[in-house]
Automatic annotation (TrEMBL):
Keyword Transport: yes
Keywords: Signal, Transport
Family of this protein: Belongs to the bacterial solute-binding protein 1 family.
InterPro entries per record: Bact_solute-bd_prot1
Name of the molecule in the record: Carbohydrate ABC transporter substrate-binding protein
Top-level division of the source organism's lineage: Bacteria
Taxonomic source organism: Tessaracoccus antarcticus
Signal peptide (from-to): 1-23
């Protein structure tokens, strides 16, 4: 295996234009892509007219609790500065690697944070079910902002039993295919715009380049092994059934082993379980189960693989010095649907929910839904962060991939759906689903057998 593996967790280079923009937001000689110790001077340039509706909050404090810790928390802290400057409030941020375990403890002890960042809707539902009086519904100002600035699907993911509890704060796009622009150009290949075109391209590459493979993949991720394969099924579900049917499947209103789900998994298998198409740089189909998620796309850099399906956040896994751009070493294209005019998009994100309804807390939650916050956060953040707020200026995003993801997230043609496994009961979404997809690859189990097993594992109540 000759592809480059060293420093795979370093932030990849982003092209000249992105580096210039990044440098402009950094202090002195800071490394491009890394947050600076002092952050950005957002507050000094804040236009307080946009903050007048929050009122005078002098002397008030809002506590915020999340899983992001130092030094990665600096962009969070910096993004709050204009709100603090213009309203007089103080935002007290606390990050913890034990966030998910400690948040329920804080609630039970009667000392929850005012605002908590929830990494997935499944956790929100658990908190609402367990602590129905502690989680506060979203107030009017934040509610109105979400209606105005976000795709309607986002509101649904912050809703539990008909009540709206959590506003979107971060996003990612998962329906991406990473590739080498030079390999594609040298082969005379065009970016596919439909699923049929993608399959035709796959076959053409396999025929014309027998020493390489069209695809490379890896689903090994320690205790979470299998999760990348769940994304494949979810993406194919969005391309073979209606959005409403996807929702029914996620909510178990459609059986996990419904014939339509079998069809979608077989479609994923047309690539992932075909030795002619995989696993470039690693071997046969079964190597997908033992190839680390973070390493899976690296054979693209040495021409052993042409395409790798993975989310926008995979940009952090390319080796240091890799240029991520349309004319760079690697870039990504949208995983197309059956029709070029309809854009199903699988994604994820995080949400902010409140445990207090004081005016200053409601004001801060509204700020988190505003264009002002999304743009301040983008200015303060390195590559890899974006928001689905339609008024985010893409010029504030540091990476071409983030800009491409935002373009998809804000496209009126996009049909956005959240990562299904994050919405399912934990026993399935981070249990039998992961294991089943691993067995599908490693043990060559049939799609129906795997889906039957997952269906049988769904909690009865």
């Amino acid at each position: 295996m000759m592809f480059r593996k060293k420093n795979r967790f370093a932030v990849a280079s982003l092209g000249v234009a992105s580096l210039v923009a990044l440098a402009a937001c950094s202090n002195g000689g800071a490394t491009p892509g890394e947050p600076t110790a002092g952050g950005t001077d957002s507050a000094s340039s804040a236009d307080c007219a946009a903050y007048e509706s929050y009122g005078d909050l002098s002397g008030k404090t809002v506590t915020v609790y999340a899983s992001i810790v130092s030094p990665e928390d600096q962009p969070q802290i910096d993004s709050y500065k204009p709100f603090e400057k213009c309203t007089g409030a103080t935002i007290a941020y606390e990050g913890s690697r034990e966030f998910e375990a400690q948040l329920p403890v804080k609630i039970e002890a009667g000392s929850p944070p005012d605002i908590a960042y929830i990494p997935q809707p499944g956790l929100l539902k658990t908190l609402v079910d367990r602590f129905p009086d502690a989680v506060k519904p979203v107030a009017a100002a934040a509610d109105a902002n979400v209606d105005k600035y976000y795709n309607e699907a986002w509101k649904g993911y912050g809703t539990v039993d008909g009540k709206y509890y959590a506003v979107p704060v971060g996003a990612n796009a998962k329906s991406f295919v990473w590739y080498s622009p030079s390999l594609m150009s040298d082969g005379g290949y065009e970016i596919p715009t439909t699923l049929d075109e993608l399959m035709a391209l796959t076959e053409k590459i396999a025929t014309e380049h027998p020493d390489a493979k069209p695809w490379c993949a890896g689903i090994e991720s320690g205790a979470a092994t299998g999760w990348p394969a769940t994304d494949w099924l979810e993406d194919m579900m969005l391309r073979t059934v209606t959005p409403e049917e996807y929702d029914k499947w996620v909510n178990h209103e459609m059986p996990f082993n419904d014939p339509k789900v079998v069809e979608a998994l077989d479609m994923a298998g047309a690539i992932l379980k075909n030795d002619k198409y995989v696993n470039g740089g690693y071997g046969n189909v079964k190597t997908i189960a033992t190839t680390a998620f973070g390493d899976a796309g690296l054979p693209i850099l040495d021409g052993q693989c042409y395409m790798h399906r993975q989310a926008s956040f995979y940009q952090a896994n390319w080796p240091e010095g890799t240029k991520i751009a349309e004319d760079g070493d690697v870039f990504a294209f949208y995983l197309p649907g059956k029709d070029a005019d309809v854009k199903p998009l699988l994604g994820g994100g995080e949400f902010a929910t409140a445990f207090a309804d004081r005016p200053e807390v409601q004001a801060f939650q509204a700020y988190l839904t505003s264009p002002e916050w999304s743009n301040e956060k983008a200015k303060a953040s390195p590559a890899g962060w974006l928001s689905a707020n339609k008024e985010l200026d893409p010029a504030n995003l540091k990476s071409p991939i983030d800009q491409l993801a935002f373009k998809l997230l804000s496209d009126e043609k996009t049909v956005f759906r959240f990562d299904g496994s994050d919405l399912m009961p934990g026993a399935v979404g981070s249990g039998s689903f992961w294991k089943g997809m691993t067995d599908w690859i490693a043990l060559d189990k049939s799609s129906k057998d795997v889906l039957d097993t997952i269906e049988a594992s769904w909690p009865k109540s």
